[in-house]
Amino acid sequence: MLELKSTEDVHEIAKSGYYIALRVGFAFPQEEVNALPTPWVDHYTTHRFMLHDPVIRWSYANTGAVAWSGIDLPDPMRVLQQAQTFGLRYGVAVACFDGNREGQRSFGTFARPDREFEQDEMNALHAYVSKLHREKAPPTNLTNAELEALKMVKEGQRLKQIAHTLGVSEGAVKQRLRNAKTKLGAQTSAQAAAMVREFGLI
Q1: Domains in the chain, start-ordered, CATH in brackets?
Q2: 123 and 96 in contact (C-beta within 8 Å)?
Q3: What is the mean pLDDT of the chain?
Q4: Percentage of residues in the chain having pLDDT higher than 90
Q5: Closest CA to 202 of 163, 166, 154
Q6: What are the C-alpha distances in Å from 60 to residues 31, 68, 94?
Q7: What is the largest distance, in Å, between two alpha-carbon atoms of the chain?
Q8: 73 and 54 in contact (C-beta within 8 Å)?
Q9: Helical packing angle, 144-154 and 170-184, nearest 10°
Q10: Phi, psi values for residue 32, rounded to 5°
């Protein structure tokens, strides 16, 4: 079974480029990787194809993996036909959703110039995006006290201010921040605060 472990592995089978959007909420992804050809990205953006792209519409309504040629949706702007002139002749769309209450889903679109994607490649791309989706899930092990301290860090408060506001010692605040950094894999309190803000936890 084919397994993709890095962006280099992905590029090996998506030779014309790819786009991955992780944890897309109401409007914007938590993180995105755009490795599509710049001329196509410029053309796509200039013509505002996002709203009309059948691949994107499929990705918001489905899970799994499908070849572009298997997407049975209207394409009034001829997005997929125009993509071919930029070397994106064959493609696959993948989408995953784990039932999270925030409604966040992740998806990707991958292209190559020479042939349709094989089923094991489609399965591997879906597994790769699903893995990234899980890795970007908000942590569930942060305590309310840790989140409260991180919120104050995000607001720019100093250690002494946080301790005074919470009615605890500076040592207690340091411990809360240390615990939060460990759980998040963050190097600094500011980074930890930015991460939980990104997750929508504060």
Answers
A1: 7-136 (3.30.450.80), 144-199 (1.10.10.10)
A2: no
A3: 92
A4: 75
A5: 154
A6: 16, 14, 10
A7: 65
A8: yes
A9: 100
A10: -140, 150
Q: Which amino acid is at 69?
A: S
What residue type is 156 in one-letter code?
A: G
Over 90: is that where the pLDDT of 104 sits?
A: no
The pTM of this model reads 0.76
3-state DSSP percent of the chain in helix, strand and coil, to 5: 50, 15, 35
Give the rounded percent of residues in the chain with a pLDDT score beyond 70.
99
Question: Which range is least confidently modeled, 69-73, 119-123, 189-193?
Answer: 189-193
Distance CA(160)–CA(163), nearest Å, equals: 5
How far apart, in whole angstroms, are the C-alpha atoms of residue 121 and residue 67?
11
Q: Are 83 and 47 in contact (CB under 8 A)?
A: no
For tokens 């990707």, the residue is 108
Answer for the pair 64, 36: CB distance below 8 angstroms, yes or no. no
Residue 109, token pair as written in the block: 């679109």
